[in-house]
Amino acid sequence: MCYTRAHFFFDRRFTGMIVSLFAEGGVTQRITFTEFFFRGERWDPTHSINPGYWIGPLVWGTLIVTVGAAFVSIPIGTLTALYLSEYASPEVRAYLKPGLEVLAGVPTIVYGFFAISFITPWLLQPLAELLGYQTRSANAAAGAIVVGIMTIPIVASISEDAMNSVPDDLRDGAYALGATKFDVSTQIVLPASVSGIFAAYILAISRAIGETMAVVLAAGFTAQITLNPFTEIQTMTAYMVDATRGEAVIGSIRYQSLFAVGLALFLMTLAMNLLNDRLKQRYREEYQ
């Protein structure tokens, strides 16, 4: 008995290394590199007649959630770190810093439930009605906001550590010249710790790109390219969860799409890590 399989843009030898453990037989369908990344029309692998395998809608959903989360976590996390480093008393810091660490350890599915039970019904639905839009329980704005809340502790904790590593001699010299605390914070501490702050940003963005359960609950499963933040979208990780719920037959083209989407996700995360290393090398400050 011979089983057929389909595969994506890898050459036959490389694909066989991945799928030989699961299927045997010949290649029946091939999705090229350009079709997968550039020349497709839509992402609809479950369509029985004309399935679509263009990853664009999944990448768009991932970027919408990531950019929206960055707009939430970066300013709030940076201001929190600046407050802890320069303004908070030791007593306040002793309670607030462990609190941030606790938030970082909350399971992501709890954040997803928080999004569908509080963020969407109490914040986004009234706002959407005020602006004349309709929204569902799962939408892009809820996914971005909840992922942004999740990554605030990452930005705040790492940035605060970077600010604390700035020598006090720099602060004392600025104060001796008549600088205010605000001047020292914004013109001395922030520029001197920019390498660590950028590392916190990149790490938070990488976390947002790879987040799974929170966006599965908050953002939904509809892969589409839209600028409406109140509509449902699908990220790359959400598709991987959706496709592994028992509907993808081993060796099928949809099953192979999991590896292709996973590879694209890996490349995005790798690019962010390389960017992080580049920024750290460029802006690193060494003090004696």
From TrEMBL:
CDD domains: TM_PBP2 (cd06261)
Listed InterPro entries: MetI-like (IPR000515), MetI-like_sf (IPR035906), Phosphate_PstC (IPR011864)
Keywords noted in UniProt: Cell membrane, Membrane, Phosphate transport, Transmembrane, Transmembrane helix, Transport
Topology with respect to the bilayer: Multi-pass membrane protein
NCBIfam families: phosphate_pstC
Family (UniProt): Belongs to the binding-protein-dependent transport system permease family. CysTW subfamily.
Entry protein name: Phosphate transport system permease protein
